Amino acid sequence: MTPERPAGAAAHPKSSRPPKRGRTPGGPEPKRQTMPSDGGLYAALDLGTNSCRMLIARPKGAQFEVIDSFSRAVELGTGLESTGRLGHGPMARTVQALRICRRKLDDHSVLRMRLVATEACRRARNSAEFIRKIQRETGLRLEIIPAEEEARLAVISCAPLVARETEQLLVIDIGGGSTELVWLDLSEVPPEERRASILSVKLGLAAVGGPPQRPGMPRVVDWISVPLGVATLREQFTDVEDDAARFALMSWHFEEQLHSFSPYENPAPREGFQIIGTSGTVTTVAASYLGLKRYDRNKVDGLTMTSAQIDKVIHDYLALGPEGRRTDPRIGRERHGLIMSGAAILQALMRVWPTDVMSVADRGLREGLLYAQMSRDGVLDGM
Fold it and tell me: Is 368:285 a contact under the CB 8 Å cutoff?
């Protein structure tokens, strides 16, 4: 599959928006309320290719406070590369996880929520049937969001980590089934307004490569959704037995998908440039660099790593081999089988951009969903 981008921007041949038959059907679900007046609870659920994750939070100043969370590796995309369909086992695991999410939503009486599915459901031929099955068996209505919405929400989630001096920003989100990259030009935005302005960023046909959507707003230089994530990239190279050779092939194969991304050929100057990486791969590499045997979000989120530090961690992973990675407490049981495909993507991205520093974000689609809902409802103080 080719990377997805807006038509007319050196683009992809077809829209990334799901077909109408994949829209979520009607039916019973937790009650929703659009404009809160009590500053109550919000929920965000992200059903990806590998994991099902949910956050329940309340607004707190310019941020939010997490009240409850859920995360489970359901491996929904298993077999999708070869069959084009979601398998019965992965769907059953996912429904079981979503039943737990439904109980949490009911226990907390959550009224405001957005529940989304991403790359695996965008690609699967039986995704519409699966969405109906979810609603029938759990009462939850999930929407399959297009790639541009996933990329936009990843950018929004990273807004609090944008430095005042940043004029060129690249946000990378390495998922299970796809990797989103968004490049923003913030040079015309006053430094004190850069974080808040990102909450209003829109990606789409008219946004890319043109002037800012409004004066004093970020300009979208380009964005791309590469249909390769930690799970889908790994599946393409399972026939390569040598660990190091498989890693090298994955990294170069991923880089080949970037050639239509305009900043790949015309990189920005180093000065005023910031790259923010958000994903389980990035946070696992950061935790390994810090030597954390027990993960600590407070130490990882906002950490700055150099290219040399990232490379050292990746070389350590290679030296460990598959068995060593499986037992390494810094990587964890759920991620050891995916860490090298994610590291291959990360190394490719750090190899081609004009920087030797990356900001680590322990945040992503769920946080973007929460910020977007709360910002829309006007319950966040200035960022």
Answer: no
Output the CATH code of domain 20-145: 3.30.420.40
Q: What is the pTM of this model?
A: 0.81
Per CATH, domain 149-365 is 3.30.420.150: yes
User: What are the φ/ψ torsions at residue 224 (nearest 5 degrees)?
Assistant: -150, 145
Query: Which of the 8 DSSP states describes residue 159?
Result: G
Cβ pair 127, 18 in contact under 8 A: yes
CA 374 to chain centre: 19
- Radius of gyration, alpha carbons of the chain: 20
Length of the chain: 383
Q: Taking CA 90 as the corner, what is the angle to CA 88 and CA 91, rounded to the nearest 5 degrees?
A: 65
Cα–Cα dist 355/113, whole Å: 37
Torsion of CA 19, 230, 198, 24, to 10 degrees: 30
pLDDT digits (tens, 9 = 90+) for 44-59: 999 999 999 999 999 9
Q: What is the pLDDT of residues 51-105, one digit of tens each?
A: 999 999 999 988 899 999 999 999 999 999 889 999 999 999 999 999 999 999 9
Question: pLDDT grade, residue 293 (50/70/90)?
Answer: confident
In the chain, where are the structural domains located?
20-145, 149-365
Q: Is pLDDT of 231 > 70?
A: yes
Strand partners, 275: 170
User: CA-CA distance, 148 to 182, in Å (whole number)?
Assistant: 9
